[in-house]
Design goal:
- By secondary structure, the protein is an alpha/beta fold.
- The strands form three sheets. It has a seven-stranded mixed sheet with strand order 2-3-5-6-8-10-11, with no helix packed on it.
- Strand 2 and strand 3 form a beta hairpin.
- The radius of gyration is 25 Å and the shape is globular.
- The N and C termini lie far apart (90 Å).
Length: 234
């Protein structure tokens, strides 16, 4: 014979308490996840630093155990603490090259970063601005993985002394507003990738050798059609 059992329903006043416990639990989980994510960003930046040659020790503040938001060249989001800007442009001269004293010009050349650009930067999921301009990466091409940093809205690789072609996957950066590749020893075979930059407002290809890019004239015409969005230089 089945015996009927009765359970006492929880009082309605108890449900807000359960809701509060659940809220606290998920808040703690989110905080822990955020801390782990930020820690992975710190590790990624240290790997990136290790592959650079830094003659003037510009990145001396980048040390393990430190707060990366306090490091030179790093800007973090005010509320989340995630790295969203990386500005490592060489510090400018006090005067144009031909006017600056010799000692200052030599110090300027020494201050330029060299070496390799580690793909550990892909761990910076919230990175929106990246500036490597005026450094010296004369022995390498533009890294293809930069086309996977899909949160970028600003990318400045000007006067880096990059060589070779331009990675087609830069066209994946659909959020990009600003792209400067000017002043490099580049020789792309196509500019079709530019058509993928649907948010682009500024493009600088100054001094880029376009003799092999047979489609550059059509790309330039397309750029002129949307010139009201900003400025493009070929």
């Amino acid at each position: 014979m089945a015996i009927a059992t009765m359970t006492t329903p929880l009082p309605i006043s108890f449900f807000p308490f359960l809701l509060l416990i659940a809220t606290i639990y998920f808040t703690i989980c989110d905080a822990n996840t955020n801390l782990l994510s930020i820690q992975s960003e710190i590790e990624a930046l240290l790997k990136f630093k290790n592959d650079l040659i830094d003659p003037s020790n510009r990145l001396s503040s980048w040390v393990e155990g430190g707060d990366c938001c306090e490091w030179i060249g790093i800007v973090c989001h005010n509320s989340t603490g995630h790295v969203n800007q990386l500005h490592l442009a060489a510090p400018p001269l006090s005067a144009p090259d031909f006017d600056a004293p010799l000692a200052e010009r030599e110090a300027y050349e020494r201050s330029k970063l060299r070496g390799k650009i580690n793909p550990s930067l892909l761990e910076l999921k919230h990175l929106s601005s990246l500036d490597f301009s005026n450094n010296n990466f004369s022995s390498i091409q533009i890294p293809e993985f930069l086309g996977m940093l899909r949160s970028l809205t600003y990318l400045n690789l000007s006067y880096e002394q990059f060589q070779g072609g331009i990675p087609h996957n830069l066209g994946n950066l659909s959020r990009l507003h600003y792209l400067d590749l000017g002043g490099n020893d580049l020789e792309p075979e196509s500019l079709q990738w530019v058509s993928g930059l649907s948010s682009l407002q500024y493009l600088d290809l100054s001094y880029v050798n376009l003799s092999k890019a047979n489609d550059w004239i059509q790309i330039k015409k397309d750029a002129e059609l949307i010139s009201n969005r900003g400025r493009k230089k070929f």
